[in-house]
Structure formats: structure tokens, C-alpha cells
Design goal:
With 61 residues, the protein is mostly beta strands. The chain contains 1 helix and 3 strands.
């Protein structure tokens, strides 16, 4: 029977740190076109000491 072990957080190679949050992108405000073939969404990232938001358009079908 396999034993389940927990790795202490200080032994993990990838740690969650404040700079990790700054590197993340948030996807917001998703909208589907009336024909269902295209979506538009906003992508928000940290730029210096503020947020930058851009719209992205992509095929869905």
C-alpha cells in the first residue's frame, strides 16, 4: 500500500512569493459573439505600479 507523504513548503522548488502575483495575468469580461465563433476578453497585468488592461479577440469555434 503506497504511503502518502506531504512535502514541507520549505522544501518545494517553486514558492509562492509576492513577485509571483505580479507576474500573473487576470482574464476578465469574457463575451461570446452572437454567431458563437469569436470571443473577446480583457487581460489585466501589472505594469510597474499600476494595472494595464488590453482586449483580446480570438476564434472560439
Amino acid at each position: 500500500m503506497p504511503s502518502d507523504t506531504v512535502t514541507p513548503s520549505h522544501e518545494l522548488k517553486l514558492r509562492f512569493e509576492p513577485r509571483t502575483v505580479l507576474a500573473q495575468a487576470q482574464i476578465q469580461d469574457l463575451a461570446l459573439s452572437p454567431d458563437g465563433c469569436t470571443i473577446v476578453y480583457s487581460r489585466r497585468v501589472v505594469c510597474g505600479n499600476r494595472y494595464c488592461t488590453h482586449l483580446w479577440l480570438t476564434d472560439w469555434a
